[in-house]
Structure formats: structure tokens, C-alpha cells
Fold:
Amino acid sequence: MIIKQKPSDFVVNEVIKLPIKKSGDYTYFELKKTNYTTMRAIQQIARQLRVSKSRFGFAGNKDKVAITTQAVSIWRVDPSEVNLKDIKIKVLGKGDEPINLGDLKENAFEIIVRKLSKKELSNISKNKPKIEKNGFVNLFGPQRFGSKLNNHIVGRLLLDGKLEAAIKEMLGSSERDWRDWKKLLKKVPKHLSQEKAVLNWLITHPTDWGGALRKIPKPVRRLFVNAYQSDIWNQKAKKSKSKTLKIPAIKVAKMPELSLVGAERAVRVKPKSFEVDTKKATITLKFRLPKGAYATVLIEQLIGDKL
Structure:
């Protein structure tokens, strides 16, 4: 099975209702991006407009290796002149409030999955009716845990106040090179700007772990704690028969700005408008999911042996 062989294999369109007006401090625009994370796209737009990223609001992070469309708000700036490769902007109108997470209703997906085995194709025929009837286990997907699948480990270390260990885990550094900040900096790829910012701070402030971590934008640091919160929930959901489970509240003593409230999350979710079109070893999937549910998790349970 191959998912996301290319961005056009994974198309996501946000379903959101905005109170659009003729005037207001916020401009709402549709952001269509290819092969960008939402945060990276906004960073590029902010740089071209020469404004702070804090002026932007959006309802959810969208996949990188994908073509995604979502609504974004910007405060007191006209984004219509932005000209960036693989980023398209369409102004929708004005409003009085920024776009926030709670504004998102659903996401609509159209996904191509390639090179399926006979066993996997058989599993799809068996599992699709079960998912339509009972839903799938609403786990947080691998995107929540980062490219190294260790965001939750960094989050746990932040929660425990082990800031140096959190930085080490985030950087993936070996014992041999640790604290040789200049040497480590030379090994970091150019596109990893946040890791470079951390190391540049440590070069001039060698043991200021809190200061180094605060070179990472707060929304990104929160993702680490979010991942730890999500991992706790996932472990419970795999065993629980309840309809909903509480996502635990988390307090980060050494970085209180990263503390998170708890919430209820459905253990199982039923996709809407669920279609599967099979052509030999390739399938096209169409479905809609409520906010917070992961298409990749649905696909894993649709194609896998265990539902």
C-alpha cells in the first residue's frame, strides 16, 4: 500500500461556515496549497506581506504532501497580491473575528491509494461495511507525532521539566556531540529553521534551555504537549468500550503558556459520503470526516487486518 505518492493523491477541502460581511478588521481568504504544511505556507505569506504570523488565524493544520484548501483570516492586511509558487489565495470577504479551531465543521477527502495487495483489497471489501455501520476507532494519526514520531516524547519531557532532555530528543542528537552547539548546527539541514534557531541561541547562551525552546513559536511548542496528550488518549481508546473518552488536561509548570485544557473525544467516528472506487491495485476513496478525525487512521483500519 502506498499513500501520498504525490500531492495530488491526497486532496483535502475544508468545510467551514464563515460570517462574511462587506467590512471588518479581518479579511477571510481561501488558501489552496500544494506540498506545504499550513504553518509553513502562512510563514511564506507573512514574509511576502512583511507582517507577523500572529495576524493570521485558521481552523486546523492540513497535511503537507497533499493539495489542501482551507479558510484563513488575516488582521488588517490585504493578502490578494501574494504571489508564491504552489500557494493560491482567493479573498472571500471581511469579518469581525479571526478564524479559530472551533469554526471547522468537517474535512472532505479524495484520496488515491496505490499498489494494494490482494489481501488488502480483500480487507477493504470486508471492512467497509463494518466502518459504515460502526465507525472506526478515532485515534490521533501519525501526523500528530511528527516526522520522527517522537513529538509525544518531547512533550512528556517538557511536562516533567526536563528541558535539556526535551531539546536533545527534538534535535535527535547523540551523546558524543551533545553541547558542541557549533558542530551540531553544521549538521542541521537549511530548511529546519526552528532547530537552527535553538542551536544559535545555545551558542551564545550555552545552558539556557528555556530560552532556547522559546525560540520555537508557541503554537509549535504546544504541538509537543498536544502529542503527549494525544498519546495518552490513544492508548486508552485502543482498550476502551466507551462512546467518548476525556482528553486529559495538562499543566506545564516550567512553561505554563503550553498548558492545555481537557476535552471529550468520540472513540468511534462514522465517515459521511463514503465511497470506494477500485481499479486493479489502486483505489480512490471519497469521504467526509468531522474536525479532529484523521483520514490516514480511517485508511489504516479500512485496509488492515484489525478493525
The chain has a mean pLDDT of 95. The chain has nine helices and 13 strands. The two ends are 17 Å apart (CA to CA). The chain has two domains: 2-106, 142-266.
